[in-house]
Design goal:
Layout (H helix, E strand, L loop, with lengths): L11 H8 L36 E22 L6 E21 L10
Antiparallel strand pairs: 1-2
């Protein structure tokens, strides 16, 4: 899948996430770094860029809102008055988000980052 997809610009944490379980040759041809800036300034976020033809740094947050991530334990009364016992009573759920930040040559290709 990575071989067919083209990811424009990647930060180091994204490369780490992509590389889990894959040989480096499977994804390095699909990646390229942010372009170098001659004026040593940080590329502006697309949300703060006014001109639609200007390059900027686009951001996209993707979340998995619900996934099972463990067992849920509840506490109940034990056999004696002062004892308590734990028992499995369901599935614990979690949420995970990742913020992708990447270069776009024109703001018009990142209109969701408003």
């Amino acid at each position: 899948i990575v071989r067919n997809a083209r990811i424009d610009v990647i930060n180091d944490s994204t490369v780490t996430d992509l590389s889990k379980g894959l040989p480096k040759s499977a994804y390095t041809t699909s990646l390229k770094r942010f372009p170098n800036s001659e004026s040593n300034h940080v590329l502006a976020d697309c949300s703060s860029t006014k001109k639609v033809w200007s390059p900027c740094q686009c951001r996209l947050e993707i979340c998995v809102g619900w996934y099972p991530c463990g067992l849920k334990y509840c506490k109940g009364k034990g056999e004696s008055k002062d004892s308590a016992m734990s028992y499995r009573c369901g599935i614990k759920t979690c949420r995970k988000c990742h913020l992708f930040s990447y270069y776009v040559p024109q703001k018009q290709t990142c209109l969701w980052d408003e």
